[in-house]
Structures are given as structure tokens and as C-alpha cells.
Write a structure and sequence with these properties.
Layout: H1 2-9, H2 15-27, H3 34-45, H4 49-62, H5 68-85, H6 94-104, H7 108-124, H8 131-142, H9 149-155, H10 158-168, H11 174-190, H12 196-211, H13 216-238, H14 246-265, H15 283-298, H16 302-313, H17 319-331, H18 338-355, H19 361-377, H20 384-401, H21 423-436, H22 446-459, H23 466-485, H24 492-517, H25 525-538, H26 545-560, H27 568-579, H28 585-602, H29 607-622, H30 628-645, H31 653-666, H32 671-684, H33 697-709, H34 715-731, H35 738-741, H36 744-751, H37 758-774, E1 802-804, E2 807-809
Antiparallel strand pairs: 1-2
Helix pairs in contact: 1-2, 1-4, 2-5, 4-5, 5-7, 6-7, 6-8, 7-9, 8-9, 9-11, 10-11, 11-13, 12-13, 12-14, 13-14, 13-15, 14-15, 14-16, 14-17, 15-17, 16-17, 17-19, 18-19, 18-20, 20-21, 21-22, 22-24, 23-24, 23-25, 24-26, 25-26, 26-28, 27-28, 28-30, 29-30, 30-32, 31-32, 32-34, 33-34, 34-37
GO cellular component, one term: cytoplasm
Pfam family, one: HEAT_EZ
InterPro entries: ARM-like, ARM-type_fold, IMB1_TNPO1-like_TPR, Importin-beta_N, Importin_beta
């Protein structure tokens, strides 16, 4: 380490050599993994005190290097040493040294590197005792009088801070102006409630002027400021908290600027649906986004502010003006009252559909986006007999010359009824989308968007469209076969990525078709499984296609249920390696999901696979590498297996219950554990193995008690908890666990129903009746017990708890709705 620090300090060495030495020194001191960091810290503290001091001195001296890059690396080294020493009381004068560099030195490079060092240190350590001094030093670096704009940019009490930041927006350096507006955006997001005075005094004017700045970097941040204001006020409205209504006050000043920005910058594809250079954020996109949020923040007030602009430009000769008008109309559709917008949309729809034939492709793209928002937000304005035919025709025609005009949100018209207004167009739309996907390129992601649109239409297809869906799956499977046959022809990483992407898209469509056809997919099952197994075998171990292929298998298992049994043996050799791929979190998660799908599909037939499943799941729980979320899913798996095979789960009961008990003692999110317990208890209920649950009742109820005592518990946790108590009571109706069910905390929880959703209340009522029966309280008016609140005449006709998939749904039956007040025990 001494040699590395000497090399970092050596001004005669090449800069790349110094940087490499500094980074090596920093990496020898810091690590992302906490265990490794402890090792590095212990190794550093074990060094000779003199050696440590020399390394620290060299690092501090390098902050003043004439080479800024060397100073920046030295700042990282100083931070890494501070992260080790400051928490244990070492290097107590470091902060004072750094503050001295800023406050007393005229060396620009030293100030920049020191500010960077302070920033790095503050990211890792809370320096509460020196926070005021640090803040003063940072402001000292940002003040208007500072001669170096680089120092000001590196730097970043309330009035003083706001004064300095506001003054920095007027600095001659554009970089400093950008940084100042970035600060204002962050300040507004964090301290909205304290901004009224500053908005009135300065920020209104500064930010509006900033949006007009000739440099797009400054204008972008000024627009972002108002987007942030609107986001905060939208959130306040949702939470029914007091708002300062900055957006509404500034509306007359801000809206004209945003509209002018749209006029001046459109044609660069302002929205992702028409963005030629995808991922590049520009001023037009920012202005359109701000307008969108402004509409949500000020609601009806935005309509009269923009309508004159729309009317003046929507038929203009200049296509930029036409696009800006359409963009503006599409941006205000969310926020104002639908009753205010409906007449305007009714008037605009024929015109917008006509604009789909515009000669300019940018205008067509933006119009398609606007029509999509109308369908998404104001579907009632589209009259099937008037608008649907010209709308669908315009969109389908648009696919031929502008493939990016893909998605249109007509899901509201696609219902579960036997027919829908879209049924006559279904085959034509899907055929047109399939033609779009035949291209070998994926410019602007349009091919993927087309496949996504097919998936959406198939998922929502009505009964009369089933023949089209069946033909679609044949076409998709043919494409999968063709791709598999081309696999040996792949050359280079680009071809491989394109192949993987296509297979993923095809898998997504197949999944949606399986879910739509359900058991009707049986005639195609052999072909699907053959192709999927070939795909899994041909894909690399780290390929994302594996996840999609596994999802196809899971969907097929859920659709076929017991009919999936013939494919299990062929699939298991691919499933087990995926379950053991602990470093591939997503693949392992999907594989665990299939372990859950198989028992649900096969029921008690899955008992023959339970041993192997349990072994690999327990191995996953013991892994130090596997992601915690996967382990949560593994716990739920135990419940699915137990529920499916019932008493055949007995050999794994004690081990499972021990694992769940241990997990419950450390698991901050107990939902998966509750699901597992519910599956086990329900699987053993009313069987000869029910008594085996008795030793585990206390630990189960202990977890339920913890969950219900949590003030931040979710409604799903409450529902699972009540249901689990009811299941236990239903398992032991003859008083075997009476002493547990009569504990005061259970009585207390069953008294309160405030704030519960209706389904949770039903579960509570069902569980209460189970407890009354199990505790012998059905005809007993025992004092003070909440179990005497309701006495049902249909007590002995109660249906048992029923599990559907992940959800624990109890059907309390009509008894819950037939409570006779005269039978209530007071």
C-alpha cells in the first residue's frame, strides 16, 4: 500500500500510472460486500501506525496535484480511508483539514478535489457533528464571488443556501447554471412545503426565464423544475394533503413557454412512440412531459389555457405546428374532468382520425399516440358505429409506411362477453401485426411492440375470435421452428441477440394464447413442449430466453392441469439445473415458480416428485448466494406442495415447520411464510395426519400474533392471518387447541374491523365461527369474548376454507349476510 500511495503522489509519473495506483489502493480499502469490507478494514487497521499515516499524508497531498485526474482519484482514496477509520474514532482531524483546504486555499484543483472527497465521505458516513461546517464550506465553494466556475460546479441555514443557488442560476458559466437548476429541482422535491416564500420572491421568474434559455441544457433543467412541482402537487392531492398550488398560480406564465418549446423543438420525435434516437432525452420530450403533469396538477384550469393554441395550429401548413397542436391535445387528456373533455374529444376525433393520413410521418406518430390516450382514458367517447371502422382502418394502413404506429389502447372494448365491437376487425388487426413482425430488423423496437400488441389482443380476445387465436398459435409455432432450424447459422453477437429477442417475443405470444385457450390448448401441447425443450437445450446457460421458455412451461402446466403429467419426466432434467443456478436470480425465481405450478396442476399425482423438489428447495434456502426474494418464494412453495399432496407431505412436515419457524423469527416480510403455513394446514385438514400439526400450533400462532401486532401490516397479511387462525380452528374442532384460541390477543384482534376490505371481513367472520366451534362457544355467552358477537343459525353448514392458487380465499357463505341482530350477545 505504501508503494501505491508513493506512486499516486509522484508528480513525475504518467497520469494513467498514478490513476491505476490510486484505484488499486482504494480497492484495497473498500468493497461492496459487507463481509469482504470487514476483512479489508481489519487488514488496514492491522498496518503499522506510521505506515498508515504516510499513506494518509500522501493521499491528502495529492488532492492538490496539478493533474486534476490524480486529485480526483486521491479524493476516492481519502474517502475509502475515512470510511474505515472515522467510525472507530481514528483520523479525528480529517474533516478540519479538508475544511481548511476549502476555506483558506486559493488552489482551484485542491478545492475541487477536496469537495469531491467530502462528497464521497458524506455518501458513506453521517458526519452530523460537523454538518454545519461542511455545509458552509460547500456554500463557500458555490458562492457567486468564487473566481473558478469549476469550483462552483463541484460544490453544489436555508435562506443562505437558496440565495446562493438562485444567484448561481445567473452565473456566466452555463455548467454552473445547469448545476444550480439541478439543485433547485432536488430542493423542490425534498422541501416543497418550505418553498412558498422563495417561489414568490425569485423562483417563479428564474425558472420561467430558465425555460427560455438558449442553451438546451439549462432549459431542460428549468422545465424539469416545473415537472417536479407538478409531481409533488399531484401526490399531495392523492394523499388529500394541503397544496401550495404553485402550478395553478404559474399556469399563465408557464404554459405559453411550454407551448413555444413544443413549436420550436418538435420533429425530433418528442415521445418514445416516435423517438428516432430512442433513449435520448430532449427539450421537446421534457416540455411534453411537463405539460402532461401540469394537466394532472391543475385539472380543468389547463383546458382554456391550451385550446386556443390547439385551434390555431392543428390545421396549419407547417407540419411542426400541426404536430405541436396534436401533442398538446394528447398531453391534457389526464387530469381534467372527463365531462369537461368529452365534448372536446367528440369534436376532435374525426379530425384526428383524418390526420392519420397526414403526409408527415412525425404528425402521424404523434396522432397515433394521442388516439391511444383517448382510447385509454376516454374510451366512452369512441362510438363503435361512427368511429371504430375509420379508426382501425387508419391505424392498420399506417403500419405499412410507419411500422412504429403499433399500439392502440382499445382494451376497454375487448370484454369477456361472447362478442365485442372489435370482433369484426380482430383477424385483420392480428394479420396486419403479424406482417409487421416478419421483418428481420427491429428499428426503434417496432417489431417487439407489434408482438406486444398481438399479445394484448390475444389475451383479451372474445369467444367468437377463438378460431383466429388458434390459427395465430400455429403461425407462431412455425416461426419458432424456423428459428430453431436457423440456430446453427448464427454468426456473431448481434445475430445471437436478435435470435434471442425473437424467441422471447414468440414465447410471450404463446403464453398469452395458452392463458386464453386454457384447456383448449391440449391439441397443440405436444408441439409446444417439443419446441420449448429444444429451445431450452439450445439456449446458453445465461440466455434470457431460458426464462421465457420456462414461463411457457409453467403456463402450459397451469392450463393442462393433470394433462401435463406426460411431460414432467422430459422437463425435469432442465428444471433442476435452473433451480441450482443461484447466481442467476431471475432464472432461479422462474424455476421456483414452476415448482409451484406443477403441484397445483397435478394435485396428489405430484407426490412422486415431492422428495426431489423438497431437497432442492432446502438447498436453495441454505445458499449464501441466492437472492432473498427467491428464498421467500421458496417458502411459499412448501405450502403449494403440501396442499397438493396432503398427508403424503408428512415425511417433510417437521423439517418444513422448523424452517418456517426459523424464517418467521428473522423475516421482515412474512407473507410467504403465512402462505406456506396455510398450505400445510389446509393440506392436512380432515385427514388422518391432522394430529401431526398439534406440536406446531404455538409457533404458527406466534407468527400470526407478530403479524397482526405490526401497525404497518398490509390487508393481505391480515387476511392470511385470520384465515390461518380459522384453518387451525377448523382442523381441531373438538377443543384440542382451545387454550390457544382463547388467548386475549386473538380476542382483541377479532374485535376490530375498522379499515378492513370486505373480503378480509368475510375471512374474519368465517374464522370467528371456526373459533367458536373449536372453543365450544357456539352456545356460550362467555363474558367479554368477541366470539359471542355473532351467533349464526347456519353454523354447522359452513363450507370449509378453499385455496385457489396463491390466494387464500374463504367463502363464508350466506350465513355472513344473514346475521340476526336479536341473536347478538351483548
Amino acid at each position: 500500500m505504501l508503494m501505491l500511495s508513493d506512486e499516486l503522489r509522484n508528480e513525475n509519473s504518467q497520469i494513467h500510472t498514478r490513476n491505476a495506483a490510486g484505484l488499486a489502493l482504494k480497492n484495497a480499502l473498500s468493497a461492496c460486500d459487507s463481509t469482504r469490507q470487514d476483512e479489508y478494514s481489519a487488514r488496514w487497521m492491522a498496518l503499522d501506525v506510521d505506515a498508515r499515516q504516510k499513506i494518509k499524508e500522501a493521499s491528502l497531498l495529492t488532492l492538490a496535484s496539478p493533474q486534476p485526474r490524480a486529485g480526483a482519484v486521491a479524493a476516492q482514496v481519502v474517502s475509502a480511508i475515512a470510511a474505515v477509520e472515522l467510525p472507530v474514532g481514528q483520523w479525528p482531524d480529517l474533516v478540519e483539514i479538508l475544511l481548511g483546504f476549502i476555506n483558506t486555499s486559493d488552489d482551484t484543483n485542491l478545492k475541487i478535489a477536496t469537495l469531491q472527497a467530502i462528497g464521497y465521505i458524506c455518501e458513506t458516513i453521517v458526519l452530523a457533528l460537523r454538518s454545519n461546517e461542511i455545509l458552509t464550506a460547500v456554500i463557500h465553494g458555490a458562492r457567486k464571488e468564487e473566481s473558478s466556475s469549476e469550483v462552483q460546479l463541484a460544490a453544489g441555514e436555508r435562506n443562505y443556501i437558496m440565495q446562493v443557488v438562485c444567484e448561481a442560476t445567473q452565473n456566466p458559466s452555463v455548467s454552473v447554471q445547469v448545476g444550480a437548476f439541478e439543485c433547485l429541482v432536488k430542493i423542490m422535491a425534498l422541501y416543497y412545503d418550505k418553498m412558498a416564500f422563495y417561489m414568490e420572491q425569485a423562483l417563479f421568474g428564474l425558472t420561467v426565464m430558465g425555460m427560455k434559455h438558449s442553451d438546451e441544457r439549462v432549459a431542460l433543467q428549468a422545465v424539469e423544475f416545473w415537472t417536479t412541482v407538478c409531481e409533488e402537487e399531484i401526490e399531495l392531492a392523492h394523499e388529500a394533503r394541503e397544496s401550495k398550488h404553485f402550478a395553478k398560480v404559474a399556469l399563465p406564465e408557464v404554459i405559453p413557454v411550454l407551448l413555444n418549446l413544443l413549436l420550436g423543438t418538435l420533429g425530433a420525435d418528442p415521445f418514445p412512440c416516435s423517438n428516432a434516437d430512442e433513449g435520448e432525452w430532449n427539450l421537446a420530450m421534457s416540455a411534453g412531459t411537463c405539460l402532461n403533469y401540469m394537466a394532472q396538477a391543475v385539472a380543468d384550469a389547463i383546458v382554456p389555457a391550451v385550446i386556443p393554441f390547439i385551434e390555431a395550429h392543428i390545421k396549419a401548413q407547417d407540419w411542426h405546428q400541426r404536430e405541436a397542436a396534436v401533442m398538446t391535445f394528447g398531453s391534457i387528456l389526464e387530469g381534467p374532468d372527463p365531462q369537461v373533455l368529452t365534448p372536446l374529444v367528440n369534436q376532435a376525433l374525426p379530425l384526428l382520425i383524418g390526420i392519420m393520413n397526414d403526409e408527415n410521418l412525425h404528425v402521424k406518430d404523434t396522432t397515433a399516440w394521442t388516439l391511444g390516450r383517448i382510447c385509454d382514458l376516454l374510451i366512452i367517447t369512441i362510438k363503435p358505429d361512427v368511429h371504430l371502422h375509420p379508426l382501425i382502418s387508419a391505424l392498420v394502413n399506417g403500419l405499412s409506411d410507419r411500422p412504429r404506429i403499433i399500439e392502440i389502447y382499445l382494451d376497454e372494448y375487448i370484454t369477456s362477453a361472447s362478442e365485442s365491437p372489435l370482433s369484426p376487425y380482430f383477424e385483420g388487426i392480428v394479420s396486419a401485426l403479424l406482417r409487421v413482425t416478419e421483418t428481420t430488423a427491429n428499428e426503434s423496437n417496432f417489431r417487439t411492440s407489434a408482438y406486444e400488441a398481438i399479445t394484448s389482443y390475444v389475451s383479451h380476445s372474445t369467444t367468437d375470435c377463438i378460431p383466429v387465436v388458434q390459427n395465430t398459435v400455429i403461425a407462431i409455432l412455425q416461426r419458432m421452428e424456423q428459428l430453431l432450424n436457423m440456430q446453427n447459422q448464427i454468426v456473431g453477437i448481434d445475430d445471437r441477440n436478435n435470435w434471442n429477442e425473437l424467441q422471447s417475443n414468440l414465447c410471450s405470444v404463446v403464453i398469452s394464447i395458452i392463458w386464453r385457450l386454457s384447456g383448449g390448448i391440449q391439441p397443440m401441447a405436444d408441439r409446444i413442449m417439443t419446441l420449448v425443450l429444444q429451445l431450452i437445450q439450445g439456449a446458453g446457460k445465461t440466455s434470457t430466453v431460458l426464462e421465457d421458455a420456462f414461463l411457457v412451461v409453467g403456463s402450459l402446466a397451469a392450463a393442462l392441469e393433470a394433462g401435463f403429467a406426460p411431460y414432467i419426466q422430459a422437463f425435469l432434467p432442465f428444471l433442476y439445473p435452473a433451480l441450482k443456478a443461484h447466481e442467476n436470480t431471475q432464472l432461479c425465481m422462474v424455476a421456483v415458480g414452476i415448482i409451484r405450478d406443477i403441484p397445483r396442476a397435478l394435485g396428489d399425482q405430484s407426490a412422486q416428485y415431492a422428495g426431489a423438489f423438497m431437497n432442492v428447495l432446502l438447498e436453495n434456502l441454505q445458499s449464501n448466494v441466492l437472492n432473498r426474494n427467491v428464498k421467500i418464494s421458496v417458502l411459499s412453495c412448501f405450502g403449494d406442495i403440501a396442499l397438493a399432496i396432503g398427508p403424503a407431505f408428512d415425511p417433510y412436515l417437521n423439517t418444513t415447520m422448523d424452517v418456517l419457524r426459523q424464517a418467521g423469527s428473522v423475516q421482515p416480510n412474512p407473507e410467504g411464510i403465512l402462505e406456506a403455513y396455510t398450505g400445510v394446514v389446509t393440506g392436512f385438514k380432515n385427514t388422518e395426519k391432522t394430529p401431526a400439526l398439534l406440536p406446531h400450533v404455538p409457533s404458527i400462532l406466534e407468527l400470526v400474533h407478530q403479524c397482526l401486532a405490526d401497525e404497518e401490516r398490509s390487508d393481505s397479511i391480515v387476511k392470511l392471518s385470520f384465515g390461518l387462525i380459522g384453518d387451525l380452528a377448523d382442523c381441531f374442532p373438538n377443543g384440542q387447541i382451545k387454550e390457544h384460541l382463547l388467548e386475549e390477543w386473538i380476542a382483541h384482534e377479532f374485535r376490530s374491523k375498522r379499515g378492513m376490505q370486505q373480503e378480509t371481513k368475510k375471512t374474519l367472520w368465517w374464522a370467528r365461527e371456526m373459533i367458536k366451534r373449536a372453543a365450544g362457544l357456539a352456545s356460550c355467552a362467555s363474558a367479554g369474548s368477541c366470539y359471542s358477537d355473532y351467533v349464526s343459525p347456519q353454523l354447522h353448514d359452513l363450507p370449509s376454507a378453499t385455496l385457489h392458487g396463491n390466494d387464500t380465499t374463504r367463502y363464508p357463505g350466506p350465513w355472513a349476510l344473514m346475521i340476526d341482530n336479536e341473536q347478538m350477545t351483548k
